């Protein structure tokens, strides 16, 4: 007699990574208000975790703990919950579902590291598994794009070239492991506010066509941190510094202490420093902490995998 099919897990844990934009080229705003981007995404080993537990049909709840949890919007504005609802609407319409999400944050909120996108990506994957849905990775990425420009990359991970408003991602060839020191700022920055400032500054005008630098792609292929450090670039950096002038000092301090390259991550205000080894990362972390130019320092490596089941 055939044995019955075992039920799926009633609870799944997924983690998803923070991202850096190693290059972020930004064009003038489109008709829909979004800015066209050419970017090199790079996932680093700083992860948020989402546990999805089956609940009664129609129940959609979320709790958040950890780094900056008090700053995460409640209820239906929570990106992880929106992700769960969107997935249910599109892929579980015939059979009502419910879920309780527990989000454990290590990625700072409003930090330019796509922490909210990581939560949405992790929630999409975790819910797809606990609800036992038949959704391909491509379909999950398409849903992710509806939730936020960085969500498809949080699902994919690694190093990737992003275009459109950031939602179109293709893996980039990269070799080796890069060592990063990431400096969290005292206060967050709102992404729309940074883009608005970028438009206001408008000097030089945002170019209509642009691409990621070839030297950066070659440095990634060659696993060469010194060359990669020299090519880090972010068009939003002047706007972020304009809104938080102390970031200029943070960047300068890391370079003085020997970083191979430094940049504001995405819309900021987190600053990422590239170094040549784990030892160099420890040394730079200690120096930056002692200098007091930021709230907290973390070490991370990249590339890291995208959203993955961990239990
Ligand atoms: O897509 P996401 O929800 O992350 O975008 C947040 C905000 O950042 C948008 O509402 C928009 O103001 C700004 N943005 C932009 N151009 C992009 C990505 C984001 O103007 N390519």
Verbal overview:
- By secondary structure, the protein is an alpha+beta fold.
- It has two domains: 11-171, Ribosomal Protein S5, domain 2, CATH 3.30.230; 178-302, 2-Layer Sandwich (Alpha-Beta Plaits).
- It contains ten helices and twelve strands.
- It has helices at 79-91, 115-130, 137-147, 151-156, 191-201, 214-221, 225-231, 237-243, 246-256, 278-291; strands at residues 11-26, 37-54, 60-66, 99-105, 159-163, 168-171, 178-184, 233-234, 261-264, 271-275, 296-302, 308-309.
- Strands 1, 2, 3, 4, 5, 6, 8 and 12 form an eight-stranded mixed sheet that branches.
- A hairpin with a 6-residue loop joins β9 (261-264) and β10 (271-275).
- The relative contact order is 0.20.
- Cytidine-5'-monophosphate binds next to α5.
Keywords:
311 residues; Ribosomal Protein S5, domain 2; Alpha-Beta Plaits; 2 domains; four-stranded antiparallel beta sheet; 10 helices; 33% helix; globular; binds cytidine-5'-monophosphate; ATP-binding; nucleotide-binding; EC 2.7.1.148; kinase; 4-diphosphocytidyl-2-C-methyl-D-erythritol kinase
